[in-house]
Amino acid sequence: MNARPAPKPHRGTIFNEDGEVLEQHGFAAEQFVVRLRAPKCAATATPGSFVHLTCDPSVPMRRPLSIMRVDREAGWVEVLYKIVGSGLRHMSMRRPGDRVNVLGPIGKGFEPHADRPRMLLVGGGVGIPPMIFLAESLLERSDARWRPLVLMGSEIPFPFRARPSTILVPGIPAGVIAGMPLLEQWGVPSRLASFGDFPGCYHGYVTGLADAWLATLPADELRAVEMFACGPTPMLKAASAVAKKFGVPCQVSLEEFMACAVGGCAGCTVLVQTAEGPAMKRVCVDGPVFDSRAVF
User: Fold this and answer.
1) Which pLDDT score is estimated for 11?
2) Can you give the pTM of this predicted structure?
3) Whole-angstrom Cα distance, residue 228 to residue 218?
4) Which residue, 18, 10, 7, is CA-closest to 49?
5) DSSP reduced 3-state for 170
């Protein structure tokens, strides 16, 4: 008699909920932040995980969106998105009280290591949300003296009103003072990068800002640093190269087109180097977070 296959690790951890729109706010360049009541998802989401949302009855395909914040007690999740195509345009029309089906949380998230508490969080564009979630999650942890620095890059206006930071960050280039007010409230330092000539921002790629800051750290301080990155693939490749240059580990959250987003269709597979050799892994449930050295 054949033994039953072992259950998949993600089975029983992805919930299907009839979510409710609580708030939706629009920002420049057709960017939106939507807050959804989805208590089961909120209770188990981790930084780096995502949700698969219905946009409208007229749009059959769901959209995968990274989770930016959760409130486990209030039972809501929040996502940031930019309109790309008709699906997310329909999503932008949702109003408080509307129903949105939420499938999530999905995926393997970031795993901070207590022996490397100086965390460098690098987010580009719609890769910003997981960095905010990761930074907020550290406020609840007491297993190390976590010292995150959040760097964010965008070629369009940021989905928040940047403010000069009051938190000094040694090693950041002179004049780079713009930060995110929400992170500032939490006591988490942040800095912004763009080619858009926005006041107080680093002029260049966010990975260039990461490189500039790491270059100021002596060897003993670099041994306490770990990088975490999310954004477009070229940015992740650049982040991986920066991490390799300075000899620091780096975790990256990949972006791929998805159909089912729960591991069934294998449409989001990527080549990953494993201890057993090259293997095709599904970004949705085997990731989206991988060791940068395994994928780049």
Assistant:
1) 52
2) 0.92
3) 20
4) 10
5) coil
